[in-house]
Write a structure and sequence with these properties.
The protein is mostly beta strands. Helix content is 0%, strand content 61%.
Amino acid sequence: QVQLVESGGGLVQAGGSLRLSCAASGTIFNIRNTAWYRQAPGKQRELVATITSGFTTTYADSVKGRFTISRDNAKNTVYLQMNSLKVEDTAVYYCNALVMTGAGFRDYWGQGTQVTVSS
């Protein structure tokens, strides 16, 4: 069984920064693509950023230049550094990972961490 556990969310003023972490645990042979998504109240879940096992990254236009996704393969952990936060960044942030286990590749989600940006 694989678990993804996010941490680092909280309340911050506009213009501030937060760093989210997502640690994977369990029987893990390899982690392929990892990603951060977010879901604001009343809105659909949206993709924020992705990073491959080869460290290629992509970002939603709304966060380019402000957010940075990274990963530490030795620790099975992915990070999201969020700078210059805006009120519209308020959402529950979820990490997602494609993990190779003994049963093959499976898609896993974390439980989410709340990020609230105040004006």
